[in-house]
Amino acid sequence: MNPPISKLQAVIQCKCPRCRKGDIFTGKMYSLSFKGQITNEYCPYCSLRFEREPGFFYVSMFISYAMNVAEMITVSVASYILGLALTYDNLWYYVALLFLTVLIFSPFNYRYSRVMLLHWLTPDLGYVPGSGDDMQLNK
């Protein structure tokens, strides 16, 4: 039997918050198809339903928004420090840079806003050691 992974590893690897074994998503984060990353309805190990109630993942939009703001501020400050002067002439460079940042980080924000919601912002959902050991559904 493998030792359980830590909560941080479960968040990084997008694992189920209850058993820390099942994947929350199917597909790759960055994919050229429109079927790239789909949230599983249930955990394949412990059968936890990820969408706790209808509209549960709407809250992840607020988390994604906060992540977007943090990324845009970071990219803006970094580009200023690296030599892009903050003048009216360079305004469109900043706009293009921020648009590109949002576009590149969108799949990352989509995935990890849902993972953060499940792991850290759902109070009645936590790790249960041994859950899913005897109930592996799809394998």
UniProtKB/TrEMBL annotation:
Span-the-membrane segments of this chain are 56-85, 91-110
UniProt keyword terms in alphabetical order:
Membrane, Transmembrane, Transmembrane helix
Q: Can the keyword Transmembrane be found in this entry's annotation? A: yes
Question: What is the protein name for this chain?
Answer: DUF983 domain-containing protein
Give the source lineage, highest ranks first.
Answer: Bacteria, Pseudomonadati, Bacteroidota, Sphingobacteriia, Sphingobacteriales
| Entry annotated with the keyword Transmembrane | yes
